[in-house]
């Protein structure tokens, strides 16, 4: 049997209420899968910062790097005002572990009025998020001060993220082919490259050509349809016709915006998972934040975390285990009896977790 070592980083607020659910579903997987799990409890977040002076303690990074195969990250609170010395631990983790892809599936269940089944693959290391900004002071007579930022796009990062998008599209098609075809809304795999190269011909232009080149590799070209969308018209189509999209690949900033926008299509942030993926390492992370308005009430929806747990397993090449978790979640949602308040139900986090564990 295979042993997977998983770091658990609950973070702040409802992160502490939902991450234990991820651990429990891993422990409840049938033994026939031949998987064993070892867990490390790790710290990060604003409370950790207030206690220790570091939002991301060195030990957390070292244990993840040296002792873990993957991790689950809950959510962290950001201070409303800038606090000296504080910066987001998840952004730092992406950098330190070179988690170059942010993958966000957005999917409704079979019984939903509008079927949606897409995944947004966002480049995670560059673009405007290299945070090389500066402010230039000028006298008012010369127009006053201004600020500028570097937008960096490399061929390597663009090619690598497009390759991952292609791999994901192939894997999704494989899963569709092996399950009952009627449950899928896509008959043919599609990868949509998103950019604004009509205006930003060098930066987004490079993203476009490097993505195109990567996706013209024979194993992709023979199996996938590749199309392009300018990002603003992409937003329009995404909201008008979300069912048309399968895999979307985008540079960091557009990917950030598209993936939060797409999450709005499925009703609750409490449903939407993500994974931060690098070579041989993946961190599952629900898309929501620490939700101070419901913290401590025991009603946080655990599904985003459970789906993130499954997504982490997919990137650790445990697709069968992931499929079991997705199926148990879908069964809970399709039945619609035990739902948390964000989905219009009355159930607690604990009741939903127990129902999904039972369905597993
Ligand atoms: P949020 O995601 O925490 O909450 C937005 C709304 O969605 C709230 O009404 C909340 O109750 C609801 N919600 C979120 N997750 C839910 C769940 N699992 N079940 C039921 N309802 C859920 O976003 P926010 O309120 O804008 O931010 C709160 C804090 O979280 C801030 O400090 C913010 O900086 C931080 N934040 C962190 C992350 C992250 O860690 N990745 C992401 C977004 C926000
Ligand atoms: Mn975002």
Topology diagram in text:
Elements: E1 2-11, H1 15-27, E2 35-41, H2 46-52, H3 58-67, E3 70-75, H4 89-96, E4 101-107, E5 117-123, E6 133-136, E7 146-149, H5 155-178, E8 190-195, H6 203-215, H7 218-221, E9 225-230, H8 231-240, E10 247-250, H9 252-263, E11 275-278, E12 281-284, H10 303-315, H11 319-335, H12 349-359
Parallel strand pairs: 1-2, 1-3, 3-12, 5-10, 8-9, 8-10
Antiparallel strand pairs: 4-5, 4-11, 6-7, 11-12
Helix pairs in contact: 1-10, 1-12, 5-6, 8-9, 10-11, 11-12
The chain binds nicotinamide-adenine-dinucleotide (NAD) and manganese (II) ion.
Manganese (II) ion binds at residues 256, 260.
Write up what this structure looks like.
- By secondary structure, the protein is an alpha/beta fold.
- The model has no long low-confidence stretch (mean pLDDT 94).
- It folds into 2 domains: 180 residues, 3-Layer(aba) Sandwich (Isopropylmalate Dehydrogenase); 128 residues, Isopropylmalate Dehydrogenase (3-Layer(aba) Sandwich).
- The protein is 39% helix and 19% strand.
- Keywords: Amino-acid biosynthesis, Lysine biosynthesis, Magnesium, Metal-binding, NAD, Oxidoreductase, Phosphoprotein.
- Its EC number is 1.1.1.87.
- This is homoisocitrate dehydrogenase.
